[in-house]
Amino acid sequence: MRIAFCEFKQWEAEFIQQQPEAAGWEMEFSEGTADELSEGAKASAEVLSCFIRSAIDGALLDQCPELKLIATRSAGSDHIDLAQCEARGITVCNVPQYGEKTVAEHTFGLILALSRNIYWAVDRMKRGDLSIEGLLGFDLYGKTLGVIGAGRIGLRVIRMGAAMSMRVLAYDMAPQSLLAEVMGFEYADLDQVLSEADVVSVHVPLLDSTRAMLNAETLALMKPTAVIVNTSRGSVIDSKALLDALNEGRLAGAALDVLAGEDVISEDRVLGQDISLEDLQLAVEAYQLMHHPKVLVTSHIGFYSREALDRILQTTVENVTGFGQGLPRNIVALRR
Predict the structure, then answer these.
(1) What is d(CA 62, CA 87) in angstroms, rounded to the nearest whole number?
(2) What domains appear along the chain, each with residue ranges and CATH number?
(3) What is the pLDDT along the chain (336 residues), one digit of tens a residue?
């Protein structure tokens, strides 16, 4: 098979090349996104392996006439136009389980950093300021943790919250009552989760139904003492609504591993000529959140551990191998 790997580092290429399954593959590796692949690679690739910064749309697919499989190395697939892929008979596979431990651990690290002002305390100490004024934190013990999206990652966050003796409320489109009974948490509707939680943690995929699900109306339900953590997708939260809530004292803080508009910033398009007004607005709001005194931001590293990266690559090899054998796995279905 002819395979184009994009958003790839040298060590990742070496990992793939060492796998026995890859012995017969004709491979091209690029550190750039899919649209930056060589014209020859696009024209001949039967398989494209990408990550989240590659926008796989109709225009790109037009340049890939031989493409049969897209093996994204992410759990999410919102960067891929699934309808276009379906219309062209292109299978899309993902890596659904690489990061539930990793992202959940990062999530709880952010929760602890918010609750005890760890980032701000460290920053103050590095400047030689030993004062503690303004660094008063709060115990997690006895507080309510609201988890939006009780999938693989959300359930691990629930388990961690329960271990910290927190009361846990969860909102999910497919509640499992037996699971809640065994793990000791409660399902509730979104309004109840937001209104009762002291800490809200977001773990939903980006779909039409979840885009800006945390907006001016829903954020208004939260306690002014509450904090919110997002390690899912930036566009699940309306950035302007979040900024307004923080600026007006209706929300105590936020920790964000993802931002709406992060792709615009990472591609340095803000200074370019091709940016739309919508993207410019997203970029401005992202910058405001990055520098807000009540917000802790990390650079989309929730998934970024050595173990998780190894799992991503190994599953990607298995996805490509299975497809080549006529046994595709981890297929992403178009949600209608």
Answers:
(1) 12
(2) 2-98+306-324 (3.40.50.720), 100-297 (3.40.50.720)
(3) 999 999 999 999 999 999 999 999 999 999 999 999 999 999 999 999 999 889 999 999 999 999 999 999 998 898 999 999 999 999 999 998 888 899 999 999 999 999 999 999 999 999 999 999 999 999 999 999 999 999 999 999 999 999 999 999 999 999 999 999 999 999 999 999 999 999 999 999 988 999 999 999 999 999 999 999 999 999 999 999 999 999 999 999 999 999 998 877 776 555 555 778 888 899 999 999 999 999 999 999 999 999 999 999 999 999 999 999 999 999 998 775
How far is the C-alpha of 157 from the C-alpha of 257, rounded, in Å?
15
Instruction: Round to whole Å and give the CA distance between 169 and 184.
Output: 10
**Hey, which residues are catalytic here?**
233, 262, 300
Residue pair 164/141 in contact by the 8 Å Cβ criterion: yes
Closest of 327, 326, 313 to residue 74, by C-alpha: 313
Which residue, 205, 186, 270, is CA-closest to 72? 205
Please say whether the beta carbons of 172 and 121 come within 8 A.
no
Contact assessment for residue 102 and residue 303, using Cβ atoms and an 8 Å cutoff: yes
Per-residue DSSP letter, 225: T
Query: CA 119, CA 194: separation in Å to the nearest integer?
Result: 25
Both tokens assigned to 61: 């697919």
Tell me which H or E stretch contains 76: none
| pTM of the entire predicted model | 0.88
3-class DSSP assignment, residue 252:
coil
Element (H, E) at 335: none
Q: Which amino acid is at 24?
A: G
Instruction: Measure Cα distances from 111 to 92, 103, 104, 217 in Å.
Output: 34, 12, 10, 24
